[in-house]
Amino acid sequence: MPIFTRRRLQSMLNELAPQLAASKTQDLVNRIESKQIEQALPAELELGVIWGLGQIGPIEIEPEWYSERTAPDVLSENLFEGHQTIVEIAGLSDSALPGDKGMRNASRKLSQEANKIQRGAGEFLSYFFFEETELVDQESIRRICVPESLKVSEHLRNNLRAWLLDHDRRASEKLNLRDGMLKVLVEWNEKRQSQFNFRSSMPPEIRSNKKNYVLGVLKRKSKQLRSPLFDGLKCVVLGDVGSTALRRSQNWDPTNRVIQGGEIARRFLKSGQSDIDVIIILSARKKRRDLSALTETTKWEAEVYSNVELKLDGVREFVASLPPPRLEGYQIRQLHEQQAFSPEGRGFYLGASISGGRGIDTKIRFSSRALLDFLAGRETKERFMRMLGTRADNNLFRIQLEMGRTISSIKLEPGGLDEDDDYIVVTFEDDAGAGNLNPEND
Predict the structure, then answer these.
(1) What is the pTM of this model?
(2) pLDDT tens-digit series, residues 404-421
(3) Backbone angles phi, psi at 145, to 5 degrees
(4) Kind plus residue range of the DSSP H or E element containing 114
(5) What is the DSSP string of 319-335?
(6) What is the CA radius of gyration of the chain?
(7) pLDDT, tens digit, for every residue of 49-78?
(8) Buried b / exposed e across 146-180, counting CB within 10 Å, b at 16+?
(9) Are 207 and 244 in contact (CB under 8 A)?
(10) Per-residue confidence (pLDDT) for residue 442, from 0 to 100
C-alpha cells in the first residue's frame, strides 16, 4: 500500500484484532482496499495511528460510552501524561480542494464522453485546466476554470466529436474547450493515461481563512467530540496523505495570500468556538541523515497545537513507534492515483547488488518478488534484467557461467514487515563442471 507495506498493515490488524470489533475491522479493510483516495489513504493512516497509540500504552477503540451519537476513534491513556485523551483521526489530501474535485470530475466525464464517441479514446486523453482571478467581496480570488460538477453540454459533445473523428488529430493542435466556467485544453497522447490525467498551472493552495478543507474537518470533528460524559483532553490528529497545507504547515507566506495548516489550527483553537483541546499535524517528511549524506530517509514528524500546556513525551514516543512511511504524503497520493495499491500490480522491489572478486565467491543479491513476478508472467525479461542493474545483452548470470562458476548456494534473506519483498542471495564459486580443466601444479 502507499503509506505502509501490506505486510505491516496485516500485522497491525492481527495485533489489534482482540480490541477491534469485527465490523470495524471489515470497515478498515474495505476502505484501505478502495480505489478512492478519500477512503483508502485516511483508513490506512487511521489504522497506523491507532496501532501506534497502542504501542505506548492502554487504548480503547471506539468507546461506546463516550456519546449517544457517535463513538470517537480511540481513547489513549498515555499520549499526554496525566490526561485521558480522546483522539479523532483525519487523513487529508488536496483532493478535497474544489479545483481538484472539479478537474477530477470533468476529466472523468469528458473521457467517458470520448469513449462513447470512439471506443477507448478516453484512455489516451489528458487535460490542462486554465486558471483565472476574480474579485469577490473586495478580495482577489484565484481559481481553476472548472465547475465542481461538470455537465457535458451538447456544445462540448459536438466539439469533442469533431476533434476525435478527425484522422489527423494526433498531428493537429490541441482541442481548446470552453463552456461557461470550463476552460480546458485537451491533448491526445500516444500512450494510455492513468487516472491522474489532469493538471493546472495553479498550485494546490488554501487562500481563505473562512472556507477551506482543513477548517471544515476541524469543525466537524469538534461537533463529534462534544460529550458531557468526558472531562479529559479532546485531540484531533490531522494526517498528511497528500495535503500541501499540512506538509508545509509551518511555512509562512510573506504576501499573506496562502494559508497553511499550522496557522489554521492555531486560529481555530483560539476562536473560542472549539470543543477540541489539542491538534496534532502528522506528516511524513524526507530528511538527510547528516550534511554529508547523499541518501535521504522519510520519517514521521508531529506538530502539536494546544491552548493548554502539556508534556509532549508521549507524543514523541508515539511518533517514534509508528512504522516507517514509504514516501511523503504527496508521493503517496500519486502512487494511489497510479493504482499502486493493488496486490495484483507490480510489487515494490528491493534493489539489486553484486559483491565479490578475485579469490572471493561472487554473490548476487536481488528481489525475490521481481523473480516471482517474472516467473508468473507479470514482468518481461527486459524489465527483470534492468532490475538486476544490467541489460539483457550483459547478463550477470551468464558472465558468472562463462567465468567457470556455478551456483554453490541460494538463500532467502527476509526483508521484514516494512518491505513487501525479500532478497534472494545467489552465491557462485569456481567449478570444473563449468570451466576448462587445469593440471594441478606441484
Answers:
(1) 0.85
(2) 899 999 999 999 999 999
(3) -80, 75
(4) helix 98-117
(5) HHHSPPPSS-HHHHHHH
(6) 27
(7) 999 999 999 999 999 999 878 899 999 999
(8) bbeebebeeebeebbeebbeeeebeeeeebebebe
(9) no
(10) 47
